[in-house]
Write a structure and sequence with these properties.
2 copies of one chain form a homodimer. The first copy, chain A, has 324 residues and is an all-alpha fold. Chain A has a domain of 223 residues: Farnesyl Diphosphate Synthase (Orthogonal Bundle), CATH 1.10.600.10. Helix content of chain A is 75%, strand content 1%. Chain A has a two-stranded antiparallel ribbon with strand order 1-2.
Chain lengths: 324, 324
């Protein structure tokens, strides 16, 4: 059995119900909107976020209809933010497929994103739990704050580890935290378990984003992004931030300033990538990620259900080892 | 007392509470996001939507905290959709002020719009009423559907009155309908009053949009839009749709086709505007608007509170007579 199958094993049946609910939430009789939503729906990913919701619910007892709706809500919120991010980043592609903006234009992409946000909210409302709606509303705010912080940070002169973690906590980890929290909450978990779940989800999200950022220092056709893509967008991530702290070299700090100013040449970016590796930036980021991974594993060990624990351990491994 | 003052009179105190809540909902400690939100907040409009919420609540008894939150939710939802619409339409201005996208760029504008949507949702959740959240979620979907329908309709060859009303019901009237409905609901109105309120709001919204569309056939520096702006964007509105139905002239139908195809010259647009007036298109749209206005007035007459009835009559007059 491959890793994904092991991860999904304890909630395999529930995932089918989830998928049916997700598909029905995205059906639309209007020809044009229906086609755009259909396009979004067919780009099904690995369902890492819904799986996390369902596993956390399972650990707590059983996956309820509320859990399924929470999972659909969170996946829709995630999808909406991807659609808007591609407009914001002017991306033509996402994981090898044309982005919604490339396919239907920016106008439609902004509106389809809005429609997805509303649909997410509707699914949250249909749980009948105001607490769930409140968490979703706060999450929506946090996700857009994260993106705004990132944009504002590009314009800041200094890159710091603190600002980096502030951004990834908002733009990535908050979503995983909400997945785990709502999984626990929707299955009737007690306050202690819900809080633990939230922390666990945040750790996963931090690992996820650090891994994602490390990818950017290596060329890989499968991911479909060139090396140094983040730097080309003015972003310095954890490996480069660490590397910068290790040196007084004026040329390196000059590259960093030009990258953040959006003025760096491809050659300067390549030099910064090379310097980051030499200075141990990748190793440092890996180490930070492994620390977070270990902290998350320790939480898993305190839970009850063998099958769920096994799945969550594989989930954590998958996040830090993945190649996509 | 001017018309706006008469309209606001029965809820003057409550409007102050509304404004304080609105301002606090848009405060943000982050420097960059805070500045963008501050810019949005300072562009305070005539508060027509919140005033409607409060008046409908007042008619029903008293404006509750839930009413205030519903009013803030709806105004935020409206504001979010304006911010995104300006990105979609690539507008540099809104009512004489620079749009958020012109001021901060498209990237920030998309994210600020998302942030406003989340803030709207949070205020809805804070009412503690799942029914209110559900209405808001549905409304969010309807508003983005309306904009998508409009985009898709531009590409359709034929302009019909039916498609026109379908679009304006979604993109404009649904918001006014929700304002009136949530005003009634938040003040504990019974099912009959809530349904009546919703219908009343929809009538207001239809009048509002027809008036807005009529403006486009006249030049007015105060509105800040050139004559024929809608046509330049490929839109044929009620006056032109009626005018087209009155003629077999090949040249007129050719202009219409070129307008919808986005290929019309300024001269062709000017000729289409002139023809629409000659063929009685403006008079027809005015007549349709007055019919809706009369239907709304008849509803007002069935309500109890003199002061509220008086305010709502002025509200209706203001919508159809306004010059902005």
């Amino acid at each position: 059995m491959d890793k994904l199958a092991i991860i999904r094993q304890p909630v395999a049946d529930e995932l089918l119900s989830y998928k049916a609910l997700f598909d029905s939430a995205l059906a639309h009789e209007d020809d044009f909107l229906g086609r755009a939503l259909d396009y979004v729906r067919r780009r099904e990913g690995k369902m890492m976020r819904p799986v996390l919701v369902l596993l956390m619910a399972k650990e707590c007892g059983a996956v309820s209809e509320k859990s399924l709706r929470a999972a659909v809500t969170l996946e829709l919120l995630h999808t909406a933010s991807l659609v808007h991010d591609d407009v914001v980043d002017e991306s033509g592609e996402r994981r090898g497929q044309r982005s919604v903006n490339a396919m239907f234009g920016n106008q439609v992409a902004v509106l389809v994103g809005d429609y997805l946000l509303s649909t997410a909210l509707l699914q949250a409302a249909l749980t009948g739990e105001v607490e769930i709606v409140e968490i979703i509303a706060q999450l929506g705010g946090i996700l857009s704050e994260g993106e705004v912080f990132q944009l504002a940070n590009i314009r800041n002169e200094r890159a710091s580890e603190e600002a980096y973690f502030h951004i990834i906590r908002h733009k990535t980890a908050a979503l995983f935290a909400a997945c785990a929290e709502l999984g626990a909450l929707s299955a009737g978990g007690d306050a202690a378990y819900v809080a633990q779940a939230r922390h666990f989800g945040e750790l996963i999200g931090l690992c996820f984003q650090i891994r994602d950022d490390i990818f950017d220092y290596f060329s890989d056709a499968a991911i479909g992004k060139p090396t140094g893509n983040d730097m080309a967008e003015g972003k310095l991530t954890l490996p480069a931030i660490y590397a910068l702290q290790q040196t007084d070299r004026a040329d390196v700090h000059e590259w960093a300033a030009r990258i953040k100013g959006g003025q760096a040449t491809p050659d300067e970016i390549a030099q910064m990538v090379a310097f980051t590796k030499e200075a141990g930036g990748i190793a440092y980021a890996e180490k930070r990620m492994q620390e977070l991974h270990a902290e998350a594993l320790a939480l898993v060990d305190t839970w009850k259900h063998d099958e769920v624990r096994e799945a969550l351990r594989h989930y954590l491994d998958f996040v830090v080892e993945r190649k996509w």
